[in-house]
Design brief:
Blueprint (H helix, E strand, L loop, with lengths): L1 E12 L2 E13 L4 E5 L6 H9 L6 E6 L19 H12 L3 H12 L14 H14 L4 E5 L7 H15 L3 E5 L3 H7 L2 E6 L2 E5 L2 H10 L1
Parallel strand pairs: 3-6, 3-7, 5-6
Antiparallel strand pairs: 1-2, 1-4, 7-8
Helix pairs in contact: 2-3, 3-4
């Protein structure tokens, strides 16, 4: 279970607090697949980063009863000064997984060729995303946080990513931020709309999409 209690997040802007999340209350259970909708600047990515522990809330409480992924789509999960292979071994040590297995999995999944053993700072943005996605899929999390997932390669590789994420969704919780209705319908069973800092849940996904488009 993942529970949010009166979660607030503000940033200082011109010397004054600018609230982004206002007293958000929610409970997510294992197996939930929730799409989070909201216009640009609504705070969707902020919510995902707070849930992942990348940023602390201003106030309120997060009760994490499940293991949380870093946000898929968040480049901070990868260290640029070391190689892709080094990143894989580093992630393996953090999560207590066999380093050789994780390295082999990521190398095969990301399909970076010789670049896998070169510093990540030499990668193109697409290669960087392929590595980050491969690292995410190498670890089994109870809850996957997906922040604006984008195509990270050709059509064949994009389909491979979709299949991998769908397989994880069958046994894990999924919280996805996306502006693409097709992705929401493919992966999510319910949705929530983040508007003016407040999160409103809708059991009917199509209804949520219609309300979001009307905002």
């Amino acid at each position: 279970m993942l529970e949010l209690r009166n979660l607030c997040k503000s940033y200082e802007t011109h010397g004054k607090p600018r609230p982004v999340l206002r007293n958000v209350n929610a409970t997510f259970w294992k197996g939930d697949a929730v799409g989070i909708l909201g216009r640009n600047g609504a705070g969707k990515s902020t919510l995902i980063r707070v849930l992942a522990g990348i940023e602390p809330p201003t106030s309120g409480e997060i009760i994490r009863g499940m293991s949380m992924s870093w946000p898929l789509g968040f480049g901070g999960a990868v260290h640029g000064s070391i190689t892709g292979a080094d990143n894989a071994r580093f992630i393996a040590r953090i999560y207590g997984k066999p380093a050789g297995w994780v390295e082999s999995f990521v190398e095969e999944f990301a399909e970076l060729g010789e670049y896998f053993r070169m510093p990540v700072k030499t990668y193109s943005s697409g290669m960087h995303s392929r590595l980050a996605f491969g690292l995410s899929m190498a670890i089994d999390f109870d809850c996957y946080l997906v922040d604006e997932i984008v195509a990270v390669g050709d059509a064949r590789f994009t389909e491979r990513c979709r299949v991998a994420l769908e397989e994880r969704r069958k046994r894990s919780t999924l919280l996805m931020v996306s502006h693409q209705p097709s992705l929401m319908r493919a992966f999510c069973t319910t949705a929530a709309i983040l508007n003016e800092g407040r999160l409103t849940f809708h059991e009917d996904l199509d209804q949520a999409l219609a309300i979001y488009e009307a905002l």
